[in-house]
Design a protein that fits this description.
The complex is a heterodimer of chains A (354) and B (448). With 354 residues, chain A is of the alpha/beta class. In chain A, 36% of the residues lie in helices and 10% in strands. Chain A is built from 15 helices and nine strands. In chain A, the strands form three sheets. In chain A, strands 2-1-3-7-9 form a five-stranded parallel sheet. In chain A, strands 4-8 form a two-stranded antiparallel ribbon. Classes of the chains: A alpha/beta (354), B alpha+beta (448).
Chain lengths: 354, 448
């Protein structure tokens, strides 16, 4: 098969193509490029911060490619606490050695948030063989500098997520507030879809940084608003609203955050194209949004200030016009992103004709 | 000569843990076992809508999330005296059973088996040199089954997604019911995945566990916990306490008294407000500088004692003869694998029956009406053990919330009364050789 270029790869990662299985489409074409990666060049180091490890569980749900194909033919995840055989000081030493050896080349994946309070005492990663305790913040300060790219997997690593939900005594934050923002790619979701993780890592291995939106998310997976692509959009347009759990209809009155959250869930679907939240008559909880969960709770109550159908606005403006409390919150988030340098920096040209 | 042996982090578990052993004369004489990362939502849940707990608390663990959704819903339903439909019982039981089987397969093939056979050199497995006794041919078959286990886990989550939107972290469990009404084509799909899962459990999973048992039979005599077993009961039918796997302890066949469940944070990095008494209703504040503390686990106690939870406890309390027939050997490294397998065999059959019992034509929707005052304890069983949710509601908002899960029980820090938790007890007395981490230590710690 002829070599795939970046544009073709992106097309094959879109939700409509992915329904046929990511791997059938692109693995044969780019197997060569992945060979180096499987041989450990560059290695992928996967660390867990304050997290429930649901992101790892979601990654393991990768359908096409499945785990066997992923780990043996596509990506070498050389370090992951859920799999690795070593334990204790040997493990900590080996992690340090791997990162030093591949300085400037390896990809660091982090699942979970970083606790800054009390000098990082809310997450002690382990002890090295000399008996020195190492906090996660200390470890990530080093690894973040050494890594070529840092992928924040999940909403906690991206924006703080549930780990950073108020009152946040551990002062949890996303990676981009801690590591050079130009290096950080956000793949949010609680958890993120396995295709988002696998597709992003594959893009990094093959072509480098993908194009990102203003929150540092790969545009390919996150540029669409859930509400705009929702199969129940017709119900919204015709004012047919579900009143009770189990009803058919638009789920806005039951708290759906689809008009706020970005992602391709409505077309990609979850768990091997089986279903998705709205498919089970349950509202979207906005888990890919930078404001999740503080600004998307209460999950099962209608968002304030959401206008009914018939009023002409683009759905994207709904996200920024949610009512006073939410706008204040979003403004804080935007300010946060200005501070990290995320907004305002040019992220490269858009892929016009996807 | 006394020595200190620290394994931190201990990888390949439900979550990474810290184990600190004091050794003397070739034996472990003291154990501290805990976690060194803060993970607690009690503060976030305060003043929130009670329904938010259904979603937030699932994030306690990327395995066992169904049990958290169920425990949260059950607590609300107890306060609101909600009457559940048959279909709700069935759909929740199927989801809970699938989650338990998922956890068992994950435990055996991802956490346990690499301690007994050399896994592939490439990729994340990075096998330690080890005490490998299974023949190369048999080992290769098991590695093949390990890869199949990944595919089957994915299928288990497909079944969950059909019933509950997506996995991990499901969407269908709500106060008083379920959002999803199953359709015929979906039922057929689930049945097809289930058939494959059933075959894997009775063929590959069964023979792999047996192979490890015959090759490493001495592990039936290693790794006993503290001898206390507890199950909160699971798979109710018609009312919340009429359970397929009954609740209780190995000392008392009578139903568990939920009010005797409490929290002991004397050695955890938590304090109560103004030093008030520690119980399920207490407000705990994190304190990483607390003197004498060594773990972020809130200890769970019943009748002021730590208890081992999980498949061994459930199967023993429920009187499953394959497990009770092992006698005291059930509480061992191998006994824990066996109990998880026997439970998987039992539940995969039950799921078929429950699917058949679902009435596709008779669904009831559930409303959003919640009680505005009250308190309750919601319980559920997850793969690795009992999940406890305490909630109190004031003015329609959550006032207090505490979550306990299997690690709260099995990794319970030393209690106020000086009792040690099941994992620590299992490590106590193990033989060690100098400053090295032995296979026994890893196998015992990973057996829970």
């Amino acid at each position: 098969m002829k070599k795939l270029n970046r544009r073709q790869f992106l097309k094959l990662c879109t939700a409509s193509a992915a329904a046929a299985g990511l791997s059938q489409m692109w693995v044969p074409a780019i197997a060569e490029a992945f060979k180096k990666s499987v041989a450990g060049d560059p290695p992928i180091i996967w660390l867990q911060g304050l997290a429930c490890n649901g992101c790892s569980t979601s990654m393991i749900n990768t359908a096409d490619p499945g785990m066997r194909e992923l780990l043996t033919e596509i990506i070498n995840i050389s370090f992951h606490l859920g799999f690795i055989g070593m334990a204790g000081g040997d493990l900590v030493d080996s992690l340090r050695q791997t990162s030093a050896k591949h300085k400037g080349k390896f990809i660091l994946v982090v699942e979970g948030a970083l606790p800054k309070a009390a000098n990082g005492a809310y997450n002690v990663f382990g002890e090295d063989s000399t008996g020195r305790k190492i906090t996660l913040t200390e470890l990530l300060a080093d690894l973040g500098k050494q890594a070529k790219t840092v992928v924040a997997v999940g909403s906690c690593a991206s924006f703080g997520g549930i780990a950073a939900a108020e009152p946040n005594p551990a002062e949890c934050m996303g990676l981009e507030k801690f590591i050079d923002v130009k290096k950080v790619l956000n793949v949010p979701g609680c958890p993120p879809h396995p295709d988002w993780i696998v597709g992003t890592l594959s893009h990094l291995l093959l072509f480098g940084m993908p194009e990102q939106d203003m929150y540092g998310r790969p545009a390919l997976f996150f540029e669409g608003l859930i509400h705009n692509n929702c199969p129940r959009r017709q119900y919204f347009d015709n004012s047919i609203f579900a009143k009770q759990f189990g009803d058919e209809g638009c789920l806005l009155q039951l708290g759906c955050k689809g008009p706020l959250a970005h992602g391709d869930c409505p077309t990609r679907l979850w768990n091997g194209v089986s279903s998705w939240c709205v498919g089970a008559n349950a509202p979207c909880i906005g888990c890919t949004d930078p404001g999740f969960p503080d600004l998307t709770m209460p999950f099962y109550k209608k968002m304030p200030q959401i206008q009914g159908p018939g009023i002409t606005f683009t759905a994207d403006t709904i996200g920024l016009g949610l009512g006073i409390a939410t706008v204040a919150g979003l403004t804080a988030h935007l300010a946060g992103n200005y501070l990290t340098g995320r907004i305002g920096s040019k992220k490269g040209d858009r892929e016009e004709d996807l | 000569m006394a020595g200190r042996l620290v394994i931190h982090p201990l990888s390949r578990g439900i979550r990474p843990i810290m184990v600190e052993l004091l050794t003397e004369a070739g034996k472990v004489i003291d154990v501290k076992a805990g976690t060194t990362y803060y993970w607690d939502f009690a503060g976030t849940l305060r003043d929130k809508n009670p329904l938010d707990a259904l979603q937030l608390t699932q994030r306690t663990g990327g395995l066992d999330f169904v049990a958290h959704a169920a425990a949260a819903a059950r607590a609300l339903e107890e306060i609101g005296h909600a009457k559940l439909s048959n279909n709700t019982y069935l759909s929740r039981n199927i989801l809970l059973a699938l989650d338990i089987i998922y956890g068992h397969i994950t435990h055996f093939y991802q956490n346990v088996l690499p301690d007994y056979i050399p896994y592939p050199q490439s990729g994340p497995f990075n096998p330690a040199k080890g005490d490998f006794r299974v023949s190369a041919a048999a080992g290769n078959l098991m590695i093949n089954n390990m890869w199949r286990a990944f595919a089957l886990r994915q299928n288990i989550h497909r079944m969950m997604a059909i019933l509950a939107g997506k996995a991990p972290h499901i969407c269908s469990i709500v106060f008083g019911g379920t959002t999803k009404h199953l359709k015929t084509d979906e039922l057929i799909k689930i049945n097809s995945y289930l058939k494959e899962l059933n075959n894997f459990i009775i063929d590959e999973y069964s023979s792999d566990v047996s192979q490890i048992e015959t090759t490493y039979v001495h592990y039936f005599n290693i790794g006993a916990g503290n001898g206390n077993l507890l199950s909160v009961g699971e798979f109710p039918w018609e009312n919340p306490t009429n359970c397929l796997l009954i609740s209780g302890t190995n000392f008392s066949p009578t139903e568990l008294n939920k009010k005797m469940i409490s929290i002991d944070c004397s050695r955890s990095w938590f304090n109560t407000d103004g030093g008030e008494e520690e119980n399920l209703a207490s407000v705990f504040k994190p304190d990483p500088d607390k003197t004498g503390a060594y773990s972020w686990i809130k200890g769970a106690v019943y009748d002021n004692r730590p208890f081992e939870v999980g498949a061994v406890a459930r199967m023993t309390v429920a009187g499953n003869t394959a497990v009770t027939g092992l006698g005291p050997r059930a509480q061992s490294v191998l006994g824990r694998y066996r109990a998880r397998l026997e439970e998987s065999k039992l539940l995969v059959k039950k799921i078929s029956e429950w699917l058949e019992a679902i009435d596709l034509m008779n669904n009831t929707n559930s409303s959003l009406e919640l009680p505005d005052e009250g308190e309750a304890i919601g319980v559920a069983e997850a793969s690795s053990g009992a999940v406890i949710h305490y909630i109190s509601i004031k003015d329609s908002l959550i006032d207090r919330y505490n979550v306990l899960d299997s690690l709260s029980w099995n990794l319970c820090p030393v209690t106020r009364g000086g009792q040690i938790g099941p994992i620590a007890k299992a490590l106590l007395g193990l033989k060690v050789q100098g400053p090295n981490v032995t296979p026994d230590i890893l196998r015992v710690a990973r057996s829970f």
